[in-house]
Amino acid sequence: HTRKHLRMGLDLQILVASFTEKAGKDLKDLTDRMKAAQKVVLIMLRSWTGLICLANDPHCLRPLIELLRVPGPSNRKDILFELFTQAIVNCAPHRAIPLHLSHLTAEGGADPEESSK
Q: Where are the alpha helices (DSSP H) in the chain?
């Protein structure tokens, strides 16, 4: 038996917690959880109801945006940067990051993997 709906507050905070967790021994597991949470947040941002729910909870959208400013693992910032980029593309495709700049990382520099090609 599964639930079809998120419970306001608790479930949204659990969703955001995957981004705020400290990386332990298993970085791949944490990255997988962040990517799964990224998909859920994107789904929520695609509807007015989801956007309002995320925006009204002070422990959801604002902390995700603030995580881009604080030092942290680059994979977390990359996943968040991708999340917000995809959200912008979904809402306003004309505001998307130009293809020639897509090789930049969340920190604003060139991606080392791209520059080695």
A: 10-20, 27-45, 48-56, 61-67, 74-91, 112-115
How far apart CA 5 and CA 2 sit, in angstroms, is 9
Chain centre distance of CA 72: 14
User: What is the per-residue pLDDT across 33-63, written as a single tens digit (0 to 9) for each?
Assistant: 999 999 999 988 888 888 888 888 888 888 8
pTM for the model stands at 0.70
Please name which of 29, 17, 31, 14 lies closest in space to residue 73, comparing C-alpha atoms. 31
Is there a contact between 11 and 57 (Cβ–Cβ < 8 Å)? no
Q: Quick one: how far is CA 93 from the chain centroid?
A: 18
Question: In the structure encoding, which two tokens stand for residue 78, read together?
Answer: 């990359």
Structure tokens at 10: 């608790």
* Buried b / exposed e along 108-117 (16+ C-beta atoms within 10 A): eeebeeeeee
pLDDT, tens digit, for every residue of 78-117?
Answer: 899 888 888 877 777 665 555 545 555 444 444 444 444 4
